[in-house]
Amino acid sequence: MVDERKEKIVAKDLNCWFGKAPSVKALNISIYENEILGVIGPSNSGKTTFLRTINRLNELNNNFKQTGQVLLDGKDVNSLDTESLRKRCGMVFALPLPLPMSIYENVGYGPIRHGIKSKKEIDEIVEKSLISASLWDEVKDRLDASAMKLSGGQQQRLCIARTLAVEPEVILYDEPCSGLDPISTAKVEETMLELKKKYTIILVTNNVKQASRVSDRTAFFLMGELVEIDKTSNLFVSPKDQRTEGYITGRYG
Amino acid sequence: MNAKISQKIAFSVLFLVTLFIIIPVLIIVFIIIKEGASAISWEFLFTAPKDGMRAGGIFPAIVGTLSIVLCAIAITLPMGVMAAIYINEYARDNLLTRIIKLSIVNLAGVPSVVYGLFGLGVFVMFLKMGVSIIAGALTLSIMELPVIITTSRNALNAVPQSFREASLSLGVSKWQTIRHIVLPNALPGIMTGAILSIARISGETAPILFTAAAFYVPHLPRSVFDQVMALPYHLYIISTQIPNMPRNITYGTALTLLMLVLAMSVTAISLRIYFRKKKKW
Questions:
Q1: Averaged in consecutive runs of 10 residues, what is the pLDDT profile of chain B (281 residues)?
Q2: How far apart are CA B219 and CA B227, in angstroms?
Q3: Domain count, chain B
Q4: Whole-model pTM?
Q5: Which of chain A's residues have a Cβ under 8 Å away from the Cβ of B170?
C-alpha cells in the first residue's frame, strides 16, 4: 500500500523558530514519491515554514533557526548545496511571481542560468514546459510579450512552467491558487494531477476543498504541530482528531 | 467653526507655505540671469580668461570642473554600488556591518571643508599626488560615497524581495540572481542617484580648494596630475579677490555653473521618467 512506496522527503524531529516564536514543533512526516500531499491548516500553523525548510528558503530570513532534519532521498538537505537542492525542489509561490521579462525569458531563465547555451535546446525546454503547465496554446504566438501582461491565472501557470523548466523532482506549491478565480484554479489543479505522474508534490493550501480534490494524502497542521495525516479519503470522511474535524467542517480557521 | 471650513483654512495655509519654496528659486534664477546673461557668448564659454580675468572666457574652468567631476564619479560610482550590493545583499547583521553602516552615516555628516583638509593631507601631501585633478576627484569621491551608497541601497531595496525568491527557488545562485535580476531592476534608481551626485559635486568648492583648483591656468589639463581651474572656485576668486571685476562676468560664471547643474538634474529626471515608463511591475 501507500506506505511501501519510496520515501522522497522525510522530516525528523523538525523544530523551527523565527526569533523566539516557534513556528514548527517536533514535526515528523514522510512524503512518498509521486504522491500529492495536501497540507491544510489555518494561517500561522507552520505549513509554509515547513515547505520552505525543504528548499531552504527560510534561510533568507536572518532570524530563522532550525533543529532536526529534513531528508531528501535520505540525504540531509542542509548537507546539499542550495543551488542543486533548489533545482531539485521547485517552488510555486502564493502570488504569481513572474520576473519582469518576456514569457520566453521567464521560462528559459532557469535553464540559461544553469548553463544551457544552445538556443534550440532552450526553445525545446520552453515549449515542453509551457505544454506541461497547459499554457502553451494560450501564449505560443506571443512568447516575446511581457509576462506581466498575462492574467493572474496565466501568470501562475507560467511560474509552474518556469519551475518545470529546470527539471525538478519535487514541486512545492505554497497556496498556489489563493489569488486565482475558480476557473484558473481548476486549470492549475488539472496540471497538478498531470504532473503527479512524474513529480512528487506537496500542496500547501488554505482551501480545504482543494486538498480534498487533488491530494492523495492530507496533513492537518495547527499551531506548528502536525495534528493528523492520513489518506485524503479517510481524513475527510472520518478524521481521528476532533480538531481536524472542527477545521474541515469549518468550525474554525 | 465647521469641519469643512477648518479643512479649507488648513489646506490653504499648507499651500501658501509650500508656495514660498518657489520664491527663493525664482529670485536666484532671475537675478543671475538678469545680471549674467549679457556675458554669455561663444567667446565667454570657449576661450581662456584675459587681462587678469577681467575679460575673456571661462573655458578652462568649465573643462576643469567637468574633468574633476567625471573622474570623481568614475571612482565613486563603482565603489559605492559594490559596497551597497555587499551591505544589502550579502552582509549579515553583525558588529562589523553595524560599524560599516555607522561609518557611512558619519561620513555623510562630515563638513565639506574637512574633506578638503583630509584630501590635502592624504592625497596631495602623503600620497604625493600634488594639487591635481586626481587628488580633487578622490577627495570628492570619498565625500560622495555615502550618498551613492545610500541611493544605491534604496534602489536595491525597491526591487521586490519576491523577485529574488523566485530566482533563488529555481536553484539560480545568489550572485547570478543579483547580476541578472536585482541589478538590472535597480539600475534606473542607481543612475538617478549618480547623476544627482554629479550635479551636487559640480558645485562643491571646499573639497577642491586645497586639492585640485588653481587660481589661474590658461591652458587645458594634459593629464590627471595637472591642476585645473574649476567653476565654483573661479567664481569665488573673481567675486572676492579681484578688484574692478566686471559684474556681468561674475554673474555669467554663476549662470554657467547653474546651467551645468540644471542640465544634469534634468537628465536625471528625464532618465527616471523614461525608466518608470519602462518598468514592468
A1: 89 93 92 92 88 85 92 95 94 89 91 94 94 95 94 94 94 94 92 88 91 87 90 91 88 93 85 75 55
A2: 10
A3: 1
A4: 0.84
A5: 86-87, 90, 109-110, 113, 162-163, 166
